[in-house]
Write a structure and sequence with these properties.
The chain has about 575 residues and is mainly alpha-helical. It contains 28 helices and 6 strands.
């Protein structure tokens, strides 16, 4: 379900040898100035041109060098990922400070909500941003109502970076807050006793302990934004295409050779980064602090830090709640600005009147639910198996752990392309052509994308089980399977439930592979239906987005209620 499709992409990309790869690397469209540097490295410094900077104080003028580089497709993909990572850090660090250093009602729930990037469908986020920043979106309605000119943010780099920050800033906050809570308060107090100022104690004691977590979150965010697909496709289109979007465009044009080469280059890059992430995450894991610093009350006398935190809360509500609220509002707002249920009525009517080739909303909902349930039957056992393997001591355990997490580093577009070119088109075996297409192919893609989340939810809990208890049970005659079912599984059950809910939500929101595998058929899901509606009518797209939000929100409620905080990425 995973390695064979990825191998299919590898074979497709290297069928004619390695020469086409050199053509890609040497093509300025893909690698910009770095392609020219293959034959003439001097362009890397001759392209650095002087620019002038006029300071507002006096008449001083500074001349500084700046690379005037054409980045190409891969360069632009990395560039927008760097900007998105920086924006996520800027938005996420204050959130980490709020969660780690302040006490307020509902803090555990807010901390649980930082896991939303893993369960919120990206195409739904894109719909929310269109409803917020589109030509007739919430922001422009407020601006024009106030007598101000509207802003045009759609199909700009700024809105892509902002949408990526919406997705990944909570992840930064979650990872850094966990590290912040593990800082022993007594060490900071000792530094203060020895004469260090609060700023010096923070810089010399706290920051070094937060830096590994921050770098881990930044690396993870860079991987996510480098492989981003749905957000860039919906908010940037081909004008601001990344590698993922261009691979999809090549697949849509039946240029499978180019798609395979680009997908392979991207996969090698993302796998390298993911391996670095896993190594870095393992190094920065640490036990909880023996005496974490006491949290301050969020509600209290006006102080500088409380004012700053409340300012951040206002910005966070605008950035994180605004797009979802705008989507909800747009789904019940008519062209005249009044409240209406016409968009939901359109979905009902479309089900009855749509032609065979058109999207039927109820069919999309039922397909999503069917794929979600079916993928659980595959992803949960797979996730449990890799969780057990990753917590056992044996030669090659780190390799197994890395291999088990490989789907996390390979985009859904690559998996979908591999399934399409392999199992969907058919594989000759012993004189027969074996075809795995339709719903089975979609379920396979969803299960592959979901099972790493089961593994990451269960493995931390498995690692905390006392090994002597397991050894005693084996000594008393219990089989390995009996020990697993009677001792280990009951202790990690909250993580299993959390992983199951994660897997179901991931399947419900999966877009990257589904949009490739469901093209031209009736196997489309709610995210695919939303993308097709966006290009025609925003109202029905927001209504379908609200339906998807309800389903994924219910899944997340299961995570929070049953799974608790038992594991998960960065947990």
């Amino acid at each position: 379900m995973f390695f064979y499709p990825v191998a299919t992409v590898l074979v497709e990309a290297t069928r004619t040898g390695v020469a086409p790869f050199f053509e890609v690397v040497a093509d300025p469209f893909y690698f910009g100035v770095f392609a020219h540097a293959v034959s003439d490295p001097s362009v890397l410094w001759t392209a650095v041109e002087p620019h002038t900077l006029e300071l507002p104080v006096g008449n001083a003028v500074i001349v500084y060098p700046f690379p005037n580089y054409q980045l190409g497709l891969f360069g632009f993909t990395a560039y927008q990922a760097v900007l998105s990572t920086l924006a996520s850090i800027v938005l996420g660090l204050p959130g980490a400070y709020l969660l780690a250093r302040f006490e307020f009602p509902g803090r555990p729930t807010v901390r649980s909500l930082t896991a939303l990037p893993f369960v919120m469908p990206s195409i739904m986020v894109a719909t929310g941003f269109i409803a917020t920043f589109g030509r007739n979106g919430t922001v422009n309605r407020v601006l024009t109502g106030s007598g101000l000119p509207p802003v045009e943010l759609l199909f700009t780099l700024e809105i892509i970076v902002l949408a990526h920050a919406f997705y990944n800033a909570p992840l930064i906050a979650r990872i850094v807050a966990a590290a912040w809570e593990s800082v022993d308060g007594s060490i900071t107090e000792t530094a203060r006793t020895l004469g260090a100022s609060p700023r010096r104690a923070f810089r010399d004691v706290v920051v070094p302990q937060l830096l590994p977590a921050l770098l881990t979150g930044a690396l993870l965010t860079f991987i996510f934004t480098f492989m981003s697909f749905a957000i860039v496709l919906a908010l940037g289109g081909l004008q601001l295409a990344t590698v993922e979007v261009w691979v999809y465009n090549a697949v849509s044009s039946a240029d499978y050779a180019t798609a395979a080469r680009l997908a392979l280059l991207e996969t090698v890059f993302s796998l390298t980064l993911t391996y670095a992430y896993l190594r870095y995450e393992a190094r920065q894991r640490a036990a909880s602090a023996s005496r974490p610093p006491a949290r301050k009350q969020l509600f209290g006398p006006v102080t500088a830090d409380r004012v700053a935190v409340w300012g951040y809360i206002a910005v966070a509500l605008l950035v994180f709640v605004g797009p979802i609220a705008s989507m909800l509002l747009a789904s019940v707002t008519g062209p005249d600005g009044g409240l209406t249920l016409a968009h939901y009525q359109f979905l009902v009517d479309r089900q009855a009147t749509a032609a065979t080739f058109q999207v039927k909303p109820l069919t999309a909902v039922l397909n999503s639910l069917l794929y979600g349930v079916a993928s659980l039957a595959v992803s949960v056992p797979m996730g449990l198996l890799f969780a057990v393997l990753s917590t056992r001591e044996f030669a090659g355990r780190k390799l197994v752990d890395t291999v088990g997490m490989a789907p996390f580093a390979v985009s859904g577009v690559v998996v979908g392309l591999g399934l399409l070119r392999g199992l969907v088109f058919g594989v000759p075996i012993l004189g027969h052509r074996v075809v795995v297409a339709g719903s089975l192919a979609v379920v396979a893609a969803h299960a592959v994308g979901a099972y790493p989340f089961v593994t990451r939810s269960v493995a931390p809990l498995l690692a905390t089980i006392d090994r002597s208890v397991l050894d005693s049970a084996r000594t008393l005659g219990a089989s390995r399977l009996r020990v697993l079912l009677d001792i280990e599984l009951p202790q990690v059950w909250p993580g299993v439930l959390a992983g199951t809910a994660f897997a179901f939500a991931i399947s419900m929101g999966e877009f990257d592979s589904t949009v490739i595998l469901a093209t031209g058929g009736s196997g489309y899901t709610m995210p695919v239906a939303i993308e097709r509606f966006i290009g025609r009518r925003l109202g029905p797209a927001t209504a379908m987005g609200c339906v998807l939000l309800f389903v994924t929100g219910a899944s997340f409620a299961v995570i929070d209620r049953l799974g608790g905080d038992g594991g998960g990425f960065g947990g």
